[in-house]
Amino acid sequence: MIFRRVHIDGFGIWHDLDLSELSPGLNVFLAPNEGGKSTLMAFIRAVLFGFKRRNDPRRYEPLRGGRHGGFLELEAGGELHRVTRAEGTSSRGDVEVTNGAGERFSEVKLDSLLCNTTETLYENVFAFGLEELQRLDTLQTDDVAGHIYAAGMGSGSLTPVAFRALLQDAMEALYRPKGKKQPVAKLMTEIEAEEEQIGKLRQRPAEHAELLRREQRTRERLTEYDAAFEQRRLECDAVQRAERAWPDYEKLLRAETTLDMIGVSTAQLGHSSRAQIDARAESGSTADRADGIARVAVQEANRELGVIGQVDAVELMASAQRALLIEANNIRRLVANADRLKELQTTVIEHQHDARALRHALFNDLEELGATWSLERVRGARTDVAARDAIRR
Predict the structure, then answer these.
(1) pLDDT value of residue 275
(2) Over 50: is that where the pLDDT of 130 sits?
(3) What percent of the residues of the chain are helix, what percent strand, and what percent coil, each to the nearest 5?
(4) CB-based burial of residue 79 (10 Å sphere; 0-12 exposed, 13-18 middle, 19+ buried)?
(5) Which residues pair with 76 in a beta bridge?
(6) With CB atoms counted within 10 Å of each terminal CB, which end of the chain scores lower, N or C?
(7) Mean pLDDT for the chain overall
(8) What angle do CA 2, 5, 7 make, to 5 degrees?
(9) How far is 308 from 280, CA to CA, in rounded Å?
C-alpha cells in the first residue's frame, strides 16, 4: 500500500493541509519540535483506524478551524482509493471509501486495503513514534510479536498468529468441548457406548451363576413337590377306594341294624355251629353256599334266642348281598389291585419305549463324539459349572 496524497481539513494544529507530491519511495518530513510531525502521524492513524475517544489528548481536536478529519489517497494493487474520515455520530468518526471512478465501498473495504492489520500492529511496527519506542511491552502482544517474528525469519505472510489460528481451527474441526459432530466427539460417544456394552457383558457370568443357583433350587423344590404329589396320590387312592366301598358299607350297617332289631348280634352269630355251616357250604353254587351260610346262621341264632316264627331274618338279608359282605374286603382289594396293575402295565410299556429311544439317542451321541468315547467315559465326565463354562469357551 502506497500513500499518494494526504489532506487534513482540521486536526490539531493543522487546517486545510494538502500533501499531494508524495513519492512511492521514502518521504521525509522535517520540522522543529512542536512543528506538527507527531500530529501528522496521528492523523494518518486516525483516518485508517478511527479517532480516539473524546477527552483523550490524542484525539487532536481542531485548534485552527476546519471539520475534524480529512482524507488519504492510497494506491493498492495498482488501483487508487480514497479513505475519508470525519466527525460523525460515533466518537470514532464516519469513514467512507471510494475508488478512482467514484464508486463507494463499506468499511470492510478498508480492512481489505490494510490486509486486516490491527491498530496495535500498525502503531508499533509500521507507524510508531517516541512513545512506542519508550514502551517495550507493546512489542509483546501476539499480533505485533508475530509480525516481527515473521519479518526476522522470512516466513512470508504466514505469521505465528495466523499459524496458531489455523491450528486452532484444525483443532476445533477435530474436537470442541461441547460439540457433537466433530470426529473426536463421535469417537468418544462410540467409546462410551462400547464401554457400556462391555459393562453389561461383564455382568453375564454373575447372572449365569445366579441362574444356575436358581435352577438348582428349582430342581430341589420339584423333588419336594414330586414327593408331596405321591403322598397326595396315595391319599386320593385311599379316598377313592373308600368311596367305592361306601355302598357296601351302608349295606353292612343296614344288615347289622336288622340283626339288632331281631335280637341277634354278630358275636352270637360267631358262636354258631361251624360244622353245620361248613356242611352246608360244601355243596351248591357260590350263591347257594352264601345263602345257606346265612340261613344256617340265622336259624342257629333263632334257636338259641328262642325267637321262632316272629321275624324271617332270611327275607331281611339277601343271600347274595350277605355273600358279598363276607367277601367284600377281598373283592375291593382285588379290584383296586387290578386297576393299579393295569396302570402299572401301561406305565411299564411307555417306559420301555422311552428307554429304547434314549438308548438309541445315546449311542448316536457316542458315535458323534468319536470312537474313543464310551459309556464309562461319559459317566466319568465333569458336569459342574466350571466344566460347563470351559466347554462353552
Answers:
(1) 46
(2) yes
(3) 65, 10, 25
(4) exposed
(5) 79
(6) C
(7) 77
(8) 140
(9) 21
